[in-house]
Amino acid sequence: MGGFLPPAERRSSALVGVYAALSLLLLITGDRVPQTTLRGIGAWIFSPFDRVVLVVDRASAAWRENQRLHQRVAELEFDVVVTHEGLVGRIGESYTMLSRVILLTDANAPIACEVESVGVMGILHYVTTPYPRLVLAGVPLADTVHIGQRVLTSGLSRRYPRSLPVGQIVRLGVDPSGLSQDIEVSPAARLSHLRHAFVIPAPDSLRERR
Amino acid sequence: MKTAFGLLAMLMVALLLRSTALSVLAARGIVLDVLAFAVVIWALARGEAWGTTFGFALGLMADLDAAHWLGRHALVLALLGYAVGRLSHTLVRDSFRTQLALLFFATLIHETWALSFDVGSVGSWPWLLGRVALAALTTAPAGAIVLLIAHWGSGQSLFGHADLPSGSAL
After folding, report:
1. For residue A27, which of A84, A194, B71, B81 is within the disulfide window of CB 3.0 to 4.6 Å?
2. What is the pLDDT of residues B23-48, one digit of tens each?
3. What was the ipTM of the complex prediction?
4. Which domains does chain A have, with CATH numbers?
5. Phi/psi at A112 (nearest 5 deg)?
């Protein structure tokens, strides 16, 4: 057929003949080529592609994970926010991509607490007089506590799981009413140096209310 | 030289697409035959010699990726590149319908050939036919639409007209 065709088309016909013959040869003999050699050649050619695929895959996985995390954070109303040092507060409002946290220094968010190891119960709340501080209130004068003891969330709290570190007793006094102790607590979490916080599930009673 | 670089770039893009986005789509049942698409485009643009070379190179790469049945894709894609390249001299290459038909038949042929190696018994033929039909029915419109968008985007003819002189006999 070559003689009937112009030179350019003869060349392309010859070319396709060569490629077809080569392909057929590979089809017939390809399985006799050692598979490890074949895979080695394939791996060598495709390793740059694999790297690109891997990078794209990792980036998309990280993005999806981030989206899931944001989605989860948005569903976490009432859940507890902590750092590795201690309690920060709880999630009060959730939006699509962010949540608002009620800090333990919120004057309207008292926390049921206990003093570690002695089990003395009290209500931790934030007061601004005579100066801004956290006070463990409602502790009878008869109960013995010491400066330096840790204050934890108590089992009476409906909003927080038990035994989360809240702070440390830094000053002891008597309440102006003279009926209970005035225990000043320094928060365990350094609220002015927050970089990362963790969200942990609220007690089951609260989760069921969602 | 420019054509050789273009060929390498097109090879890489086709293989990357095949192993990333299209493999994800294929796992969800949407088969887009990017190998057939790339060969048809290249052969339409460059003629049968480059079409054959591109088809053979792309097919060989795909075969090496699979590491078995070496020559399976290379043979059919080289022949497709040649056939489409020959047809490109007599067809209106920028026509949507031409591209649709070429992509449909090229995908049909390529998928039938490539999948026939994986089919063992007669019972698997319905699966093969379904997959081939799905691939042809998705690749042809998707490919033609991509070319249409590229045509609109560039504002000029992608392939130019057929090089047959006006009035000459076929």
Report:
1. B71
2. 777 777 788 889 999 999 999 988 88
3. 0.76
4. 2-52 (no CATH), 80-208 (2.40.10.350)
5. -75, 120
